[in-house]
Amino acid sequence: MSNYNFFAMLSRMRYINRWGLMNNTREENIAEHSLDVAIFAHALVCIANERFGESLNPDRAALMGLFHDSSEIITGDLPTPVKYFDPEIKVAYKNIEHLSEKKLLSMLPDYLKDNYVPLIDSQKGDDALCPYIKAADKLSALVKCIEELKMGNNEFAKAERSTREALNSMDLPALKVFMDEFLPAFSLTLDELD
């Protein structure tokens, strides 16, 4: 009987911290981030279906969100300023991510691989859902910035502005609805959420 390491490796997502170059009031790991991305991706697709007549699968979007950063178990979380410093670094990092995805998938038995390839292999995902996952990923980053700013941590002011600009430049009507109708609540205190 063989032993497979895939799920044990996935459980290590909680040990990979995000925002490594930033002074955080509360650290965030990729497991927490991935849950946020899954929730936001599901919401965005539901909004797209209900408000804009799309017929996309929100459950599939949530699953894609859960696994979207799984390669970082192997690579770690490369800070955005480094990742996008120049085009060569960006391409090289994409190649490293893809090799890491392949490594993770190799930890599965053959009878399960087809279930996980579209969730982990970024080159084989559902193309119609990819813009929603990307938007959800950015939303999660924006929410982190908002939370840090609420705590008085101005270290995140520039990241908040650039992330908000990136979101505003996305041509995704469901994202605009989410930002108009749901995002303001993230600036509220617990008592104000009542």
User: Any low-confidence stretches, pLDDT <50, length ≥5?
Assistant: none
Mean pLDDT equals 92
Cα-based radius of gyration, to the nearest Å: 17 Å
- Count of distinct strands: 0
Proportion in β-strands: under 5%
Structure description:
With 194 residues, the protein is mainly α. Helices cover 61% and strands 0% of the residues. It has 10 helices and no strands. Helix 2 crosses helix 10, helix 6 packs antiparallel against helix 7 and helix 8 packs antiparallel against helix 9. The chain is globular and about 55 Å long. The N and C termini lie far apart (53 Å).
List the helices and strands and how they pair.
Elements: H1 6-10, H2 30-52, H3 58-67, H4 72-75, H5 80-83, H6 87-105, H7 110-120, H8 130-150, H9 157-168, H10 173-181
Helix pairs in contact: 2-3, 2-8, 2-10, 3-8, 6-7, 8-9
Keywords for this entry:
194 residues; globular; single chain; mainly alpha; 10 helices
Give me a quick take on this structure:
The chain is an all-alpha fold and 194 residues long. It has ten helices and no strands.
